[in-house]
Specification:
Oligomer: single chain
Number of domains: 2
Structural class: mainly alpha
Distance between the termini: 56 Å
Radius of gyration: 30 Å
Largest sheet: 2 strands, antiparallel
Shape: elongated
Number of strands: 2
Length: 284
């Protein structure tokens, strides 16, 4: 009986070792099968992922470069910075209330601030920021492709079998900060080209002048109209940096849409490596 038990135990251990060996081979081997009879190497998977991102940025730049590419897309439209929105909301409230004490201010020898300088600035600035991003979009292609080419991808199979934008997420994590520094000069020049920098200068200058005017108003008059304190003493947003970061967010979002399409639609796999790598996922 003991011999039979020992033999059975030995067979069980041998079976376990064989199974573990098979699992380790599938994990650490040079090739892995994922969903069909063909096997992919890690190098092929990485090549396919980079190709998908490259195709994605080509397509994204074309879409975003069109008039309204950013502005008419609610998912990526660039809104005003929060401090600018807060300041403009305050101005709109302030200008209506200040009219209540215009006479008292005149008697006190305080010149009334011309709030008309802010008219239409909210929409004009937002439109120009989006226009600048649209114009800068094609300039991102070479920057992105350099980043994709030089990117070291770890766990290519994990990314391939991840969610529908796994490769785009990986690219964003690895490249967003360095891309910001490289892309910002292009955005800055296009902001100037479409007049956004002039609008921003007018907005910040007028707000800062209004802040000085506010300080001249006697406290008892402020109490009469229950005017809250200014949200900021000065506006100092770095418009180029803010717009750059939002423009890149929009680019990555659009590249992610293209990655999802390549994963789900065989017709979007326009090269052999895309067909081989993403076809292995079994989505036909």
């Amino acid at each position: 009986m003991k011999k039979i038990f020992a033999i059975l135990c030995g067979l069980a251990v041998l079976t376990l070792v064989v199974c573990l060996s098979c699992d380790l081979d599938s994990i650490f081997g040079d090739t892995v099968s994922i969903g069909d009879d063909s096997e992919l190497t890690e190098a092929e998977v990485i090549s396919g992922l980079k190709e998908a991102l490259s195709v994605g940025i080509d397509t994204a730049s074309v879409h975003l470069n069109a008039v309204g590419g950013y502005l008419l897309n609610e998912a990526i439209k660039i809104l005003l910075p929060e401090d600018v929105k807060t300041a403009l909301s305050y101005v709109e409230n302030f200008s209506s209330k200040i009219s209540l004490i215009t006479g008292a201010l005149a008697l006190a020898g305080i010149d009334i601030f011309d709030f008309s300088a802010f008219n239409g600035m909210r929409d004009s600035l937002m439109v120009s920021m989006n226009r600048a991003s649209e114009k800068a979009a094609p300039l991102s292609v070479s920057i992105f492709k350099d980043a994709i080419t030089g990117m070291t991808i770890r766990d290519g199979f994990g990314i391939l079998k991840g969610d529908s934008v796994a490769a785009t997420k990986y690219l964003k994590i690895k490249t967003f900060d360095p891309l910001t520094g490289v892309f910002e000069p292009f955005v800055d020049s296009t902001l100037a080209l479409v007049g956004a920098q002039v609008l921003w200068q007018n907005l910040s200058t007028n707000y800062n002048s209004m802040a000085l005017f506010y300080k001249e108003i006697p406290q008892n008059l402020l109490d009469i109209i229950s005017l809250p304190s200014l949200p900021f003493d000065t506006l100092s947003t770095d418009l180029a940096l803010y717009t750059t970061q939002k423009a890149l967010d929009g680019l990555f979002y659009t590249v992610g849409e293209q990655e999802t399409l390549i994963r789900k639609d065989p017709l979007a796999r326009i090269t052999e490596i895309l067909r081989k790598v993403f076809g292995s996922l079994g989505i036909e």
